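Attaching the record inline, Q. Sequence:
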Amino acid sequence: MIYVLDACALMALFKGENGADKVEALITEAVTGQSGIYMNTINLIEVYYLFYRKAGKSGADVILEKIYDMPINFINTVDTTIFSETARLKAQYAIPLGDSIGLATAIKLGGTFVTSDHDDFEEIEKTENISFFWFR
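Structure, as predicted:
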């Protein structure tokens, strides 16, 4: 199984929010080799800047190091597939750019998108053949 994390998944995990236990369980699966976890670096930037706002650079750097210690494979490029899917999703559904990139990454990898952003993705789930893991 392949999971692609939205920024909100890591935010919930580090802030101890509702659903953090489900995200932690996915990470445990990856540690044991039962699944693979991916994240686009654009979505990682979202996590980093949100912690930067709350805890400054040093606090954000601590979180970033913890993330890098996790079994997450980072997608560092926006290749032609991610580029075109991002544009299509953004145009068709008017979702935020970061969400479009994360979802396009899941499409490219044939993975399940891990999110809690029902407002952004429920319509897409109803109309597209994309797998979602709702952690809350």
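The helical segments are 7-15, 20-31, 41-68, 80-93, 97-109, 118-127. Residues 41-68 form the longest helix (28 residues).

More tomorrow.
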